Amino acid sequence: MSSPLELLAELRQSSERRPLETLKLAAPVLNTGAAARAGDDRWLVYEQVFVAAIDDGDMDLAKTVLALLHKQFDGSQRVRRLYGMYNDAAGHPEAAKRLYDEMLAADETNVLASKRLIAQLKAQGHVAEAVGRLVEYVDTHANDFEAWLELAALYLRQHLYPQAAFCLEEVILQQPANHYFHLCYAEINYTMGCLDVALKEYLRVVELSTDNVRGFYGVKLTADRIRELRSRPKKEQPAWIGAAPQPAMLERLAQLATERLVAAYGGAGAAPKRAAEAWLSE
């Protein structure tokens, strides 16, 4: 059985913020002094507990752990960022912003301060300003795919689909094997009416994730939509239609997607299977 310290390390490596589980695992570690057995990793544990305490609203615990980190790493930019997080959570956003601005004034490439300032702007509803800051950030840190994802999400909140699609393209360049990013990109292109691109991306989704229901439904929906557009007079067809698959191929794709969807719902029993068949035949 894994020890609490090992489980906490697994949570850190996965980058998951599960505050209740983290605090439950950390309680015996903090109360018995077991953190000392982790060596230098104990400071990572303390930082992990601090973030979990902030997420859970336990400001007393957060303050206690922050004092330990400050004593050990006085002057550390990483600890200063934690003070900013504490001020944000404690309802002192202006104090937090001053701290982030000071950190950026000293080092404009400070990733931690930039991300915290962007998160603060987003939380306060200043979407346009957060977008501006993120655009500046990805100009400097183009390999940070999580920042591109965040920028895409902010663009989607403003219904700026072409800009969001561009961000997802950057993400896919860095994470080509992640089916979820292809799915997001496919759905954005479907929304924009770029059905040829959407179909290719939905097919990539089901190639990477062979039982993905959203992917197969996207294939069916897009193939059916392209077939409907092909049936219109030439002057009403979009410019990209010539590069799209021919009707016979679209029909086969739609049929295959329907079969896979019915099979997926069939595992839940006869009634869901019949409902799926009726729904897909509409």
Q: Estimate what percentage of residues fall within beta strands.
A: under 5%
Rg on CA atoms, Å: 25 Å
Helix content: over 70%
Helix-strand string: HHHHHHHHHHHHHHH
The number of strands is 0
> Largest sheet, if any?
none
Determine the N-to-C terminus distance. 52 Å
Number of helices: 15
Mean pLDDT across every amino acid position = 88
Structural class: mainly alpha
Tell me, what's the shape? elongated
Protein name: Inositol phosphatase SIW14
Organism: Coemansia helicoidea
Would you write up a description of this structure?
The protein has 15 helices and no strands. With 282 residues, the protein is mainly α. The chain has a domain at 206-282. Helix 2 crosses helix 3, helix 10 runs antiparallel to helix 11 and helix 14 packs antiparallel against helix 15 (270-281). The longest helix is centred in the C-terminal third of the chain and has 20 residues, at 247-266. The chain is elongated.
Notable traits:
282 residues, elongated, 76% helix, mainly alpha
What's the layout of helices and strands?
Elements: H1 4-14, H2 19-32, H3 42-56, H4 59-72, H5 77-89, H6 93-106, H7 111-123, H8 127-140, H9 145-157, H10 161-174, H11 179-192, H12 195-208, H13 213-230, H14 247-266, H15 270-281
Helix pairs in contact: 1-2, 2-3, 3-4, 3-5, 4-5, 5-6, 5-7, 6-7, 7-8, 8-9, 9-10, 10-11, 11-12, 11-13, 12-13, 13-14, 14-15
